[in-house]
Amino acid sequence: MPPELYDNELNRDKLVELERDDFIRSLHLNDDIIPTPVVFVEGFMGPSKPAYWGPLEEIFVSFNKKQILKDRRCIFVAPGCGSSLYDRAIEIFYQIKGGRVDYGENHSKKFGHSRYGREYSGLYPEWSVSKPLHFLGHSLGGVTIWKLQQLLANDTFPLCLEPHPDMIRSLTAVSSPFKGSQSVYLLGATTDPSGTVRPFSFGAWLGRFVHIYEYLDIKWLKSLAYDFNVDHWNLSFRKNWTSLLPWNINQTATIFIEESEELIQETANSLCSTYGLLQCLCKSPWLNSVDNGPYDMTIHSMEEVNSTSKTFKNTFYRTYVTSITYEDPITKYHQPKFSFSLPIPIYFLSKHTGSFNFPENTPNPPISRDEMYKWYENDGLCPKYSQTHPHHECSLDICKHHKGLPEGVSSYKIEVGKWDVWEIDNTTHFGLISGWYKTHKQRLFFKGYKEYLDQIDNQYCV
């Protein structure tokens, strides 16, 4: 007579516990090993607060009371939550390494903002090829890490800081639009690569709110709530008012008298290119350009980004792909599965994302109507097809796909330089990250991610 279901569950739990203990013991070959720190990168409009990720210290420790390895350090970065991939990647680099943010002379002149940004002491100044970091990003955060690695591989950063793509040991992305998302067009972006926004769309009104918020520049509110980190665009009333004074440039230059001549000149130039509030509310030079986060989430932008990007052989890549839709057998479009917990705006956005087509008068659409069906399944904001990896085709050399979340100790070998894709159905864009809801799915995700990082560190330390 077969055992009862309850007995089966007990046996299964005991087996999983034994396997986990064996796995943990295998990591104790050297108890002096310090786990590689992990950097957390939020997505579009993320508040840059640790609470976004939940109680990570508790999550990482509570899954196994017997683990005696040193705690893994968690590093939280705060790039501009509405800024472009390029600007966000630059900011993350200097927040970790330390120093004054340098967006580059050519880039800043091209888009009309200051070359230099804030100065940071460095969250992990020793970051290098010999001391790499793990990275976990949600939504736009995952794509930002991808952009950062590409910049580390070219001449963007000063050579004295020894940039190299191998400084990123692992890149893990959750619900990240690596190929862009059609939902951005629905929210306001025009369907051409100009970067303009429809003036009365949701995106345009959101942009006006950001401009007013940054113009008022209320310091205590920024520290308590949102800090959009767009100082280099000179949107604050402080820079707008003082730039009208003829003596202001010389006064500013004397403040930075100990800085380099290049920085003094840049400071003076930046005060001459401020943007008034009324100008920004009518037609923002920031929002109506290709140097912002919303444009970088378009399919147009990501097609351009990925055309010059590559996967690196010494980095581990993993993506968690979420979806809440099903195919309508009649129309072949995708509809969101009904749930009382699904917010109404997400429901309708998912519905329209699942039936989106570029208008017939769109010049050079990035996707043909015959290929658009691949983009219909979505998680409310991002197509499932876009979340897998930056490549348009799958092959054994590029990726390996799994269903569900990893449970227990992983029974497969992780492979460096290949995209490890986990497809999770019935999960919204915010179902795994963006707040801690104490759900079973969230616990499984963080548990599996912790074990994944342990596996990688063990593989390098053996």
Give a summary of the structure in a few sentences.
The protein is α/β, with parallel strands linked by helices and 462 residues long. The chain has helices at residues 5-26, 56-62, 85-97, 105-111, 140-152, 183-187, 202-216, 219-224, 237-242, 248-255, 261-271, 277-282, 293-296, 299-307, 344-353, 384-387, 440-461; strands spanning 38-41, 74-76, 99-102, 116-120, 133-138, 168-174, 316-323, 325-327, 334-336, 399-403, 419-425.
Q: How does this structure look, described?
A:
The model is unreliable at 1-30, 242-259 and 262-272 (pLDDT under 50). The protein is globular. It has helices at 5-26, 56-62, 85-97, 105-111, 140-152, 183-187, 202-216, 219-224, 237-242, 248-255, 261-271, 277-282, 293-296, 299-307, 344-353, 384-387, 440-461; strands at 38-41, 74-76, 99-102, 116-120, 133-138, 168-174, 316-323, 325-327, 334-336, 399-403, 419-425. The protein folds into two domains: 1-26; 31-110 and 119-191 and 290-461, Rossmann fold (3-Layer(aba) Sandwich). The protein starts with a helix and ends with a helix. With 462 residues, it is of the alpha/beta class. The longest helix has 22 residues, at 5-26. α3 crosses α5. The chain has 17 helices and eleven strands. The strands form three sheets. The protein has a seven-stranded parallel beta sheet with strand order 2-1-5-6-7-11-10, covered by helices on one side. Strands 3-4 form a two-stranded antiparallel sheet. The protein has a two-stranded antiparallel ribbon with strand order 8-9. It comes from Glomus cerebriforme. Keywords: Hydrolase, Lipid metabolism, Secreted, Signal. This is Alpha/Beta hydrolase protein.
